[in-house]
Amino acid sequence: DIQMTQSPSTLSVSVGDRVTITCRASQSISSSLAWYQQKPGKAPKLLIYKASTLESGVPSRFSGSESGTEFTLTISSLQPDDFATYYCQQYNSYSVTFGGGTKVEIK
Amino acid sequence: EVQLVESGGDLVQPGGSLRLSCAASGFTFSSYWMTWVRQAPGKGLEWVANINQDGRETFYVDSVKGRFTISRDNAKNSLYLQMNILRAEDTAVYYCAKGGVDSSWYWRVWGQGTLATVSS
Question: Is the distance from CB of A19 to CB of A26 less than 8 angstroms?
Fold first, then answer.
């Protein structure tokens, strides 16, 4: 099974900060990587798919990139609505695994 | 409006069974892969199972193989998850999610979730 190692598990940041979250896959997953945002008591919300394609309606301050088996979600300037937990998810070869999540909290 | 509404969550004893349902509306249900994803209290997301458009292809996470069965009724626009031999570690909010027309398994549309609690 493909493992997804997500870091950090928690980020304490301020509004306006640049935020970077990383996921590393245990083997090649091509670009089969999605990012979600989840707020307490709510279902996840798709932000990015195919590693770097921004979902319709998602603000452009969110971006995704990849380098080999390492994938990055960047929030260019954190807004108050962005405090949440973020998950990466690989969907390669008829299997799915999520990263452990990154909670972005107020410093 | 595309909508998914789960139901069937309950308190059940270890070793028991539960059937979850997901009612879909606002899209052509029979054209899309469908999925169950769960989240244990205070924990992360875990994919559970996928089913293709005609129900002939199903995929499961190893921890539920042989115990859970995903199915669908396209005439009723409904997705199901039959859960047998339940364990305490199956306690979670179960979400259904709408996939794509291909096997790119990421999900734009999610239900609100239904809580299944396994406890004596």
Answer: no
Given a cut of 90, is residue A93 above it in pLDDT? no
Closest by CA position to A95, among listed A39, A29, A31 = A29
Query: Which residues touch B111 (CB under 8 Å, ≥6 apart)?
Result: A43, B4, B5, B6, B22, B95, B96, B97
Question: Is it the case that residue B31 has pLDDT exceeding 90?
Answer: yes
How far away is chain A from the Cα of B58, in angstroms, using its nearest Cα?
10
Residue B104 has pLDDT above 80, yes or no: no
Does residue B102 register a pLDDT over 90? no
CA atoms of B112 and B14, how far apart (whole Å)? 25
Start-to-end C-alpha separation, chain B: 40
A57: buried, middle or exposed (CB in 10 Å: 19+, 13-18, 0-12)?
exposed
Position B103 pLDDT exceeds 80: no
Residues of chain B contacting residue A91, judged by C-beta atoms under 8 Å apart: 104-106
Neighbours of B49 (CB within 10 A): 22
Average pLDDT over residues A65-87: 97
- CA-wise closest residue to A34 among A10, A51, A59, A14: A51
Q: Closest residue of A to B52, CA-based?
A: A94
What's the average model confidence in pLDDT over A47-57?
96
